[in-house]
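JOB MANIFEST
job_type = single_chain_structure
chain_count = 1
residues = 219
[input]
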Amino acid sequence: MFTGIVEHLGTVLTMRPTQAGSRLRIDLGPLRPDAIHGASFAVDGTCLTVAAGGDTWAEFDVIGETLSRTTLGGLRPGDPVNLERALAANGRLDGHFVQGHVDATATVTEVTRTPSEVRLAFTLDDPGQIACVVPKGSIAVSGVSLTVVDVQDATFSIALIPTTLAKTTLAVRKVGDKVNVETDMLAKVVINYLMRTGQSSPAAAGGLTFDQLRESGWL
């Protein structure tokens, strides 16, 4: 479990093919002491397990399923990545609950800069996931905990404060770039329940009402 609060910008050292997928080596910098064998790290929002380590680096196995569902397959040596260690049981939850299970990738469709913030718009590559994106709700983009500004069709936008721009890879995202998206855990549970009980569909989920939630026992 993670919080979406990026602790360090790591650097990809190598990405080599293996029989199961790829072996990703990352310079973890100050996070290396916690990268013991079997430990979990969020790499650009994707939960990976430490498989090996050196002085400042650690290696992670990335299987085919992960390569097909995330942006990790496009990483190259020198690329920066957002890193977060797993949440300690006594740690602060400064962002929101993030599992490191990427729901979909999205494409940057617009970048708007003002003196006070940078606003990014994304279009989900799987439009069906938009049902779980809630205006003013939480979302993780490349492992960064953010608040959704608005939602339209398969597109959503977020606003970045200076701290986020300084400490994450979102500062260098441009139109056409791909990002990993994990939608809000609670929204996914509600939508999944309604779909399984035949009370909603992906297309209709955006029209979810309080009456429907009361009838289903959620309120």
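[summary]
The longest strand covers residues 8-17.
The two ends are 26 Å apart (CA to CA).
exit_status = 0
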